[in-house]
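User: Hello, beginner here. Can you help me understand these amino acid letters and fold codes? It all follows right here:
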Amino acid sequence: MKRLLTTFLVCALMLPAFAADDSTEVDRCENAGHVLKEILNVPEDIPQDLLDKAECVVILPSVKKAAFVVGASYGRGVMSCRGGISYTGPWGPPAMYALEGGSFGFQIGGQATDFVLLVMNPAGARSLLKSKVKLGADASAAAGPKGRTAEGATDIVMTAEILSYSRNKGLFAGISLEGSTLRSDGSANEKLYGKQVSARDIIRDGKVKAPACASELIALLNEKSPKNRSDPKSLK
């Protein structure tokens, strides 16, 4: 018991060091574009009809997961949304976001995983723009279906506010992130844009222009999904 407790304390102290991210905000912004390009260029990954109905997309490259006595996940990335009052305009500049979560397990080791989250309605987008969101509690979340279309997806998936996907070692799958939290990364936004701006300032209020590092990401989204094909009634 004493040995187990000692191991627990040592690993708990190691987690902040593991979670530290040496990449810059520009790096994360650019990597988000690279990751999404690789994923969207594989036909059997994210269904096109779901991407076309998404109001926002969150890309979290290389989320790190440490699993010693207590597992913990930590990652940083970006969220880009369609412009306009009803999210029907072109994709706009990204806001920096952080994913944090915990899980229990006895595996030893670590792994890095890319995550892509589709925000499927304005309510989900508004939640993410206002405050920290606990997936599965503050916003309904589900593992996203794969394939060319979402035909055959369950009612739970089709009514979820956020659909999540993961890619690890070349394998791509829907994954549940329930229990994790997603929040705007205020200090990263300040570093990227050179001034204090909230996620809402960036995404909804047009107070900043898209940085050069986001050019690939925004161009890709506007190319792959130029029009919001959600039911207009769901956008009110």
Notes: The chain has a mean pLDDT of 83. The beta strands are 56-67, 70-81, 95-104, 110-119, 133-134, 141-143, 162-168, 171-174, 181-184. The first strand starts at residue 56 and ends at 67.
